[in-house]
Amino acid sequence: MPENLTIISVGGSLIVPDKVDTVFLKSFKDLIIKFIKKGKRFIIVCGGGRTARNYQEAARNLGNLRKNDIDWLGIFGTIINANLLRAVFYKFSHPKVISNPSEKIDFKEKILIASGWKPGFSTDYGTVLLTKKFKTKRIVNLTNIDYVYNKDPKKFTNAKPIEKISWTDFRRLLPRKWRPGLNSPFDPVASKEAEKAGIEVVILNGKKIKNLENYLLGKKFFGTIIK
Predict the structure, then answer these.
(1) Average pLDDT, stretch 165-173?
(2) Structural domains in the chain?
């Protein structure tokens, strides 16, 4: 397992919560470059965020559109975000954004940026495929929540944060099927594949940059470990 390679999935809610969050992107950029200078390499997979959801919601409101067409709108949102990050990291990044995780990928640069792939496959699933391809066993999943909770904290005031959970128990918290635009800490199809491959996923709040730094340094951090 390449110890110097870290795979990070950056939720679209961090990149484009409403409009492009340049404050988050600047702090994320500075942190990643800091670790690059220590010899680390990264694969960064980008979600679609509000850009993707705006188009998907508009499509749904305009009539009975095909599921694949709605899915493609979300994928193009991830491609826009991925190209933004590729530009941000241009000094260190592979020149091509990877959309197909099953293709032959040979990168010597410090950073590889990836986007969504095709209908039926979320960026979570693509991240799992890349993790398997590069023979690593851990994914850092950055989102806008501190923990996975036992129920939706926006709806239930008694929702409890979970620090560690098995894949079996985690999957019980999820919908059984994935759909385009599904808002979940890690989607059900990707979760099943990660469990099968023995991959650990760590859910962290990407806005808490110091906490992410602590995790990357192997120090105490807060978040949810799924394994």
Answers:
(1) 92
(2) 5-226 (3.40.1160.10)
